[in-house]
């Protein structure tokens, strides 16, 4: 049911973007300007729409934190290091997983973990990557892509 609704919502958002461009705050107000972002962020079409999202952020139509979060999601989906530390992922240590300890949730690897909190602050995040991870119930550790690939090799 969720997939069906997500698909229908994406179709609606695509029609709106094709007709009006990104439905930012000058068109629909706040917080409604985040609706299209949420639909795209949870779709398989982030790569297709990220340029539209980025442009909306540059024009002040969408909060830059949302743009940063989508950039991180895009990078994670491409199995590249994220920039802002906004994305977590479940890593399967054993496949198929049977018990809870067969997987762990991590903050996806960050390109520059030593300076990520400065970057987060500059873009407008209200907390550090450590605080963010804690709010998600994740014990933060700055993993590398190599470490994640080794952990995930069980799959």
Task: Describe the overall structure.
With 155 residues, the protein is mainly alpha-helical. It has eight helices and two strands. Helix 4 runs antiparallel to helix 5 (64-77). The mean pLDDT is 95.
Q: Globular, elongated, flat, extended or rod-shaped: what is the shape?
A: globular
> What gap, in angstroms, lies between the N and C termini?
27 Å
Walk across the major sheet and give the strand order.
Answer: 1-2
Total beta strand runs: 2
Mean pLDDT: 95
User: How would you spell out the order of helices and strands?
Assistant: HHHHHEEHHH
Low-confidence stretches: none
Structural category is: mainly alpha
Q: What profile does the largest beta sheet have?
A: 2 strands, antiparallel
Count of helices?
8
Q: In percent, how much strand structure appears in the residues?
A: 5-15%
Radius of gyration: 17 Å
Q: Helical proportion?
A: 40-55%
Produce a short descriptive summary:
This protein has 155 residues and is mainly alpha-helical. The chain is built from 8 helices and 2 strands; from the N terminus they run H-H-H-H-H-E-E-H-H-H.
Write the layout of secondary structure elements.
Layout: H1 2-20, H2 25-28, H3 35-41, H4 46-58, H5 64-77, E1 88-92, E2 103-107, H6 116-123, H7 129-135, H8 145-151
Antiparallel strand pairs: 1-2
Annotation keywords:
two-stranded antiparallel ribbon; 155 residues; globular
